[in-house]
Design goal:
The structure is a homodimer. With about 230 residues, chain A is mainly alpha-helical. The first copy, chain A, has 2 domains: about 15-65, Orthogonal Bundle (Arc Repressor Mutant, subunit A); about 70-210, Tetracycline Repressor, domain 2 (Orthogonal Bundle). Helices cover about 70% and strands about 0% of the residues of chain A. Chain A binds a DNA duplex (30 and 30 nucleotides) through helix 1 and helix 3.
Chain lengths: ~230, ~230
DNA sequence: TGTCAACTGTCAGTGACTGACATTAGCTTG
DNA sequence: CAAGCTAATGTCAGTCACTGACAGTTGACA
């Protein structure tokens, strides 16, 4: 509860501002080193030295080496949740989740830029996807998020999360598909925002058709739902 | 490629048998300690000491403390893959995956028992689900498995994995739902095989309905697909 | 039986992380 | 503005997972 998440230099004391600067510096230096030399080849000492603080201080700002890698990601997730909560109740669960994702991407850029360059965050995301230890952490974090989303969906639909399996099932299917899109984006050449948007829509469009028993009709074209 | 996975004491030399016994002992002791004292409160030294080998030897059998926790899980997964490969080609992808899972559970017990008591494995699974670090590793391993399954599905349906998003999308949705069932089972009271089978079927049954736009019709009863 | 290769143990070292305690430096109050 | 409080930081020692190097042991096999 005492944590500040953005770089909003509120008119607080010098102490606060110093802390904020230290945190920002640690974060930026860490991501820069991670993305250039690789996560595993970067030691915490290296990060701390670059910012000229002790290793102990690093661990007072971030509970682990891992945590610093997900600092921005966490903002993105809150953004999505906020967007989902704002979706009109008439929308079905899938429409709401889909619109929340696509909608949150319209404004997320600025929010990120307040902390680190967007381009650095893109590189970070790709690094997470390609570093086993970080991918594992990412997936675990995602399950926490899923549970939150399931709760929101259940709320929207006025259902009891423990009695009706549909909220969790729907969210699991949705996020599963999102992850496939995210992973392919991370592996692909095109690191643009356009690219991930297209990939996401493409994959979400295929969720319905993929559940059909018969697949033998080719379905290469994005929008063409066969069946 | 040089690894043995089961406890089949083939008529090989004394050396091989000794190795097998050491591995089995390490595995069993490790799981026993993990499940009783907790994963994090168990050190590798403790395990090694209990088996009376050096810590170094432990790491020659298992690449990490984590790996030993997943040794049995790995068997279970291979079992599922084998079952999936054996499903008749007429079955749709979902039917095939579903039947493969449920089918593999018919015979998995004996396979497990050859290495460790089934009951110990059940406890281990629950421990994995409730230990953050292990859950993370589990999820990462699952993505590897998903990719394998997607390949098999694409093969079955004679599709190009890179051109058609449906295999990956279907697998993501399927395994996402499986994980929800698995997690709930791990959290619930009933640790029986019956229990997980029921939970799985229940959740898979709800995948189709959950994709529908309209949910307002209550769907509490397991088999009752509304809409 | 002797030789080779596979196992194993020992040792030293790295890197993430933690608790305890001393030190520094904003903030507050008289 | 000086004294005192307290949050932030530094230092140090220690634990634990994991690794490379090297030496000792012990099955396997001619």
């Amino acid at each position: 509860m005492t944590e500040r998440q953005a770089t909003i230099e509120s008119t607080t004391g010098l102490r606060e501002r110093k802390k904020q600067r230290t945190r920002d510096a640690l974060l930026r230096v860490a991501l820069e080193l991670f993305t250039t030399q690789g996560y595993e080849h970067t030691t915490v000492d290296e990060i701390a030295d670059a910012v000229e603080v002790s290793q102990r201080t690093f661990f007072r700002y971030f509970a682990s080496k891992e945590e610093v890698a997900f600092a921005v990601q966490e903002m993105v997730e809150s953004h999505f949740v906020a967007e989902l909560l704002a979706r009109p109740p008439e929308e079905g669960p899938f429409a709401a989740m889909r619109n929340a994702v696509l909608g949150s991407w319209n404004t997320i850029g600025e929010a990120i830029e307040a902390v680190v360059p967007v381009e650095l965050h893109m590189r970070t995301y790709r690094m997470i996807e390609s570093t086993p230890a970080l991918l594992a952490a990412h997936l675990r974090r995602s399950t926490d998020l899923e549970e939150r989303i399931a709760g929101i969906v259940a709320e929207r639909e006025e259902l009891d999360l423990d009695a009706d399996p549909r909220p969790r099932v729907a969210v699991a299917a949705f996020t599963g598909v999102m992850r496939v899109a995210g992973r392919l984006w991370g592996q692909g050449e095109d690191a643009s925002m356009e690219s991930i948007r297209t990939l996401t829509e493409l994959h979400l469009d295929h969720l319905g058709p993929a559940l059909a028993a018969e697949w033998r009709t080719p379905a290469r074209t994005p929008g063409a739902h066969t069946a």
